[in-house]
Design a protein that fits this description.
This protein is an alpha+beta fold. The chain contains 9 helices and 15 strands. Strand 11 and strand 12 form a beta hairpin. The chain starts with a helix and ends in a 5-residue tail after the last strand.
Length: 357
């Protein structure tokens, strides 16, 4: 009796579940049908379709008339073309990535900066990295200064290093103009890794500071003891700076350049000669570890630079020790870290120096 009493109830519950499931499936089918209808009934903006067609021509590795026309049209269109060009930077086709970076350089849109920085750091194809480096110079992206400096020293491709160096030169010129400084007076400039819009430009004894990527400037007049040859910013503390000062060794500021103090313990300056620090690198994994490349200018009628070698500090500049890496006959103009390895640039040669960790 109990079983026969429950059977109609169970049967009704199963029937109701079936009705609910059928209703849910029906609703889902209706949603899909409406989506398909809307997709076919409401076509994409004609301009978006035209941009997509032009970007499709960027797949061609050869400079055909169609690709040339497409690039010219995308450049003329400007900002509206940027979103789809950024998608093209992630294409599986290297030619499309390379050509997209090229067009983004001609458009010079700041909204492309972050994507181009990623391409410069990570793309496997040198030609793509080269175009990304060039484009960042056209955009005058101060947030990319550190990426360009690293690429100019550590990239395995000479053409990428050259493009990065050219872009840094263009950015230097733009910074000089924006800060109303004679470019010939600029000894060094640096961007804060932890604060992308903070830029320092050392010119004679003045330090020019911009907090907004070079748009506006404050001049800290005569705060430096002499002309600066190299400048670096702590990767974790944008207010901590190191400057190589002509004939005076290395100086440090902990207040954004307002005041400076010498940190030369262990550095033997050459009496009667003009000592120079040509490069400074701070370990991105341990900001207390610094490397400097040193040399001395000698001569009367003709003055030549003679390298002295590398020195390292493990205590944020308090003391320094000489290193055997970087022999004295190699004039190291730049230093940079990449993947835990310190590299130096001597002329056109990339030197693998030390692995700190």
């Amino acid at each position: 009796m109990q079983t026969s009493f429950l059977f109609p109830i169970v049967s009704k519950i199963k029937q109701r579940r079936y009705m609910i499931t059928a209703a849910a499936i029906g609703a889902l089918v209706l949603v899909v049908a409406l989506a398909v209808f809307n997709a076919t009934a409401t076509p994409r903006d004609p301009r978006e379709l035209q941009i997509a067609s032009w970007i499709g021509e960027l797949n061609n590795d050869k400079l055909t008339t169609a690709r040339q026309d497409a690039q010219r049209n995308l450049e003329a269109l400007g900002e509206p073309a940027v979103p789809q060009l950024l998608v093209a930077l992630r294409s599986a086709n290297p030619a499309q990535r390379r050509n997209a970076a090229d067009v983004l350089g001609y458009i010079a849109s700041p909204q492309a900066t972050e994507a181009l920085r990623g391409v410069l750091q990570q793309d496997a194809v040198p030609a793509v990295r080269r175009n990304a480096a060039w484009a960042l110079g056209e955009i005058h992206a101060t947030s990319a200064i550190n990426d360009l400096q690293q690429a100019a020293i550590t990239d395995r491709s000479a053409m990428v290093r050259g493009a990065a160096a050219d872009s840094l030169a263009r950015i230097r010129t733009v910074l000089a103009q924006a800060a109303t400084v004679n470019e010939q007076y600029i000894g060094a400039y640096a961007s804060a890794p932890s604060q992308a819009n903070l830029v320092y430009v050392a010119a004679k004894r003045d330090l020019n500071v911009s907090m907004d990527g070079g748009k506006t400037w404050q001049t800290l007049a005569s705060v430096l003891p002499s002309q600066v040859s190299a400048l670096a910013v702590n990767p974790n503390n944008a207010q901590e700076l190191y400057a190589g000062v002509e004939a005076m060794g290395i100086y440090k500021s902990v207040d954004g350049g307002a005041t400076w103090s010498a940190v030369n313990s262990g550095i033997a300056l050459t009496p009667g000669a003009r000592d120079s620090i040509s490069a400074i690198a701070i370990d991105p994994e341990n900001a207390n570890v610094l490397y400097i490349a040193r040399g001395v200018w000698l001569g009367t009628g003709r003055v030549d630079f003679y390298p002295v070698g590398l020195m390292v500090s493990h205590d944020a500049g308090k003391t320094w020790q000489a290193l055997s890496a970087g022999s004295s006959d190699e004039a190291i103009a730049k230093l940079a870290f990449r993947d835990g390895q310190l590299y130096g640039l001597a002329g056109n040669r990339v030197l693998t120096l030390v692995t700190p960790r």
